[in-house]
Amino acid sequence: PGETVAADLNGDGAPDVFQSGDLLVRYENDGAGSLTPHPLVYRTVFDVDTADVDGDDDLDVVAATASLNVEDTDGDGNDEYAEAEQVLWFENEGTGELSRPKPLIVSKHPIQHVTSTDLDGDGQDEIFAASEVKSADFNGDGRRERSEGEVVGKVVTLHEYDGTATMTNQTLGIFRENTNPVVLKDIATGDIDGNGEIDPVVLFWEWGASWYKNEGGKSFASEKKIVDSGFGSNVFDLDGDGTPGIFVYQPNSSDPYPDPYLGWYEADGSGNFPLQKEMPISAAQVVFGDLNENGQVDLVTVTNGGITWSRNDGQENFSTRTVADQATGPLSLADVDGDGDSDVLGAKRDLFINDENVNGDVFAWYENRGLRIPAPPTSPTAQMVAPQRVPRGVEEVQLDWSASTATDVQEYAIYRETRLPLDSTRGPYSFDFAAIDTISASQTSYQDTDPLLQADTTYRYRITAIDDIQNESSFSGEVMATPRAPLSVHTVRPESGAPGTVLRIRGSSFSTNPSAHTVTIGGVEAPVDSAKETVVYARVPAESQLPDDVEGPAEVTLETEGQTLSLPGAYTVVRGGSETFTASGADITPVESERAATDWADYDNDGDLDLAVAGENKDRDRSTTLYRNDDGSLTPIDAGLTDISGSAAWGDHNGDGRLDLLLTGFSGTEANVFLYQNERDGRFEKVLESEGRKEDGTGVTGIYGEGGWGDYDGDGDPDLFVTGVEEGDVGLKSAQLYRNEEEAIFRWGSPTRSERFLPEKLFDNNAEARRLDWGDYNSDGLVDVVVAARLGVTVFRNEGDGTFKEIEVGDTFPDPFDVAKWGDYDNDGDLDIAAAGSGDTGPVTKIFENKGNGTFEAIGANVTSVKDEASLDWGDFDGDGDLDLVVAGQENDSGSRTNFITKIFRNDGGGAFTDIDAGLKGVESASVDFGDYDNDGDLDLLVTGNQEDPYEPVARLYRNEPPVASSSAVITGGGTFDFDGTGVVLEISGVSNFGDVTVQQFDSRTQDTTGVVGALASTDRFIMSPGDANFESVQVNVALSALGPLSNPEDVVLHKRPNTGRGTFQALRTHLDENGTPGDISDDTLYASVDSFSEFVLAVDSDSSPVSRSILLSEGWNMVGMPVESGGASSKSLGAALPEGCGSRFRWRRPSRQAEAPGRFANRGERPPLRAPRYRTRRRL
User: Based on the domain organization, do 974 and 1093 belong to the same domain?
Assistant: First the structure.
């Protein structure tokens, strides 16, 4: 078919249809939708239109044709053939009957298109005709150019009937053919520039559209190109502003066309036609009409896919429905069946008639069976309900509404948005909105169980009604809902620390009121400092509050909002430690590789740390081994884990209270990610294996690298972040973020408030992201990520909306790094970073201080630089309350396999770190990991990697051992103990019938003499354990004669601190027990009374009397820093640092009344001095 036009020629309300093509056919309409064809011309007809040619107030028919039979021009009774192209006129005789065709326009050029309009408002239509020309004066020189037998251009002319069966005409424009033929598509009319005059617009195939401005009096300006590409489609005033728009279909330049659109161009008043809007509609032909009678103009279009209806939501946003798939144009709209709505006229493809295939398209019309929209539902409400997902998930949204009043509603559609309100005036027909679900009309409630719901995000909901022929109502009113994550806990960081260490208990939906939470560690209440919605900050209880059995992995509980949430074995309380590390002899599989990994965790919740080890042995065979800790003995078990070289990370992915194991790396010939679920009975079930991303965005891609757990979206379950080299592409270095949605389902991508979880590379700069660590560096309650990579260390700040932003750190992290870990080394409450790797000038190890303003600064710590798959770990090995650092790797950059080291650096405060010379096995391709595997209250150390000679993997588990006493004695009922070779004598009295006193001597120095200015750390330590004895107060006595020549007792100062091995010393008030000889102090005694047992240090302001001795007397202490509670009382110690050869007496006074509880040192306050002091201490050393 060529063109289709419908018109009611006889005024009966039933339009007839005229269609051109291989012939001109009139389809007579009986008023009920039955169309009877009547051929009018048995020749090719290019175009057809209706027009009041003669001005008699009824519509005639005009048709463009060629070489047709015409009337008997010579009166011989025979019709002659015309040799010219013609526009035929079928005059309406007033009753709808048409006369025989009359030649209205005669041309030597083929007339392809005709269209009519009343330009001057005289009631008589003018006709525009477009013809192909084989010769024309294209350059205006008065001569016609010609191409033999070929079309060289197009010409548009204007014609008007003068009442004598002839037409006046004028030429509007001539279009010269260039390389490609100019194909005229149609001629449309409208007041394009809003000047009140009707203008013609010529629509082309591929060459866009041209405009001829009507300057009045049927005088036209020269051609102006509106759009110079695309398929001209139509002219229509879509937005009702009085100025028609020109619609041009512009397919993408590629084939097939992935993103075609219908361009809407409109005059801007200055003679230009800017693009108003790109409508994502395929439309080689478009017609306009209100098909659903909602007062908005819709679009009906035709493309290769058939005929579609694009519904207008009132804001010129369109949703598309298919009218007919095996259909094509030409298109037109008319109420064929007289039911008051517009039907669609077009053509059906490849019809069979009488069992014969018709080669071409056949006219067809498509009945509008009632596109009137039903009434929308009303009064929607929303409330939060407990999630259906088990065991955890954000709250779900329960919607309820009142039913639509329409009787033919079949279902309801649910719409949800986060970006902006779902404005009810727009309806659901915009491309911005898509229903999340539909339900039967028998229901008026809906529960949104979508796992994509995010905690603390506001969602906007509206509902529509859909009838039995898929007509959809406008939106209901809007209702909003903000789901919360369930109350949960899942992580404690750090994993170990001494009393006073700040814990970050991570979870979801916490009250921000600290008093709403009660935290316990090992059953002992811990003070809560502050709280955010995703983290509670608490402190490890003081040493005096901790019972003896709080050692090893202790349970952390959080009581809040009437619930008790627990994490078994989540925290190791460090009760002490030493600088002595002894190989335990544990049989652990030696491993190394670029991705060797070890991770301590209490997977069986039995109160001790178990171990996962993954890597390659000396034969390059991969292995993954799980060791169960049986009271300090590590036993390998057959857990059915895949052997890999990569990483191992414990995390409770499903919130069942049992730690699951994530493995990433090479398992043979390809990279993989495996998740093994802890099944409680010692079995591990593989619930996730990398199979690539699925169409719905779920699924995990194989990575040769490292994986880590962190709840980045705050919904109460740990999400997954993996770094390394992607499977199948060894050149693609990346980091991928996966959201934990439900049981072993992870979705790839980083969501924002306005987007679903689109696949997105969080970190992809071909830098090979190596290691990662989660931590909240800016204390905003959101976990951030630090990534070590070949191009440096990158910190990603969690923005709280599912996105991460690289923070501005300047040149802080310029070097390549193998590993980076968070740790608060300076105890200022924010997380710092330690990193190691191969710098531009060789090995590098750096500590970066968090400045609190989003930047980090290297502190210049004296820590050995290492490279070659370096490893490091933070841990308080000596129990002094600050984080120390262990590093392992190759120390030099010679390229040879030498200078492998593993060193522990003691944190001495103020950014100073000291190598303790622990004598550990040096390794590269290393993994080092602190953990208290023997439950003795101090951190042990696991070291794996390649040793130097022979170059092969080794594994060493070092036990943090207390020093062995060089001598000891038990004093019953008081007495004297002479420390051989030291000159120290202890005289103890007042302990009879109260228990034994054990005295031990150690050849190791007292640690941390902060506050004792200028004092030398002693080389000997003395510990006294008085068992169940009770004491009321203690008097410390020092014989000054043993201190050497002193002229002033003010040069001698006793210092005290409340806890052994940690804290700051403070000077005590001292008194002089004179011998009675004025000016002679050699036989005098300096003493001080104290009200509790603690650690004491003596400082002497004399070059000849350096401080070199200390004595510690401790109730219930087996060793320094290793408290053993006696009867539940506080553990205390007493000591004095004395010079070489010094003698001293410690006088213990019995209490005047019974102590408050057996086995305790009762604090009765300071005793008054025996006599008034003669001197007061002024100098503190």
Answer: yes
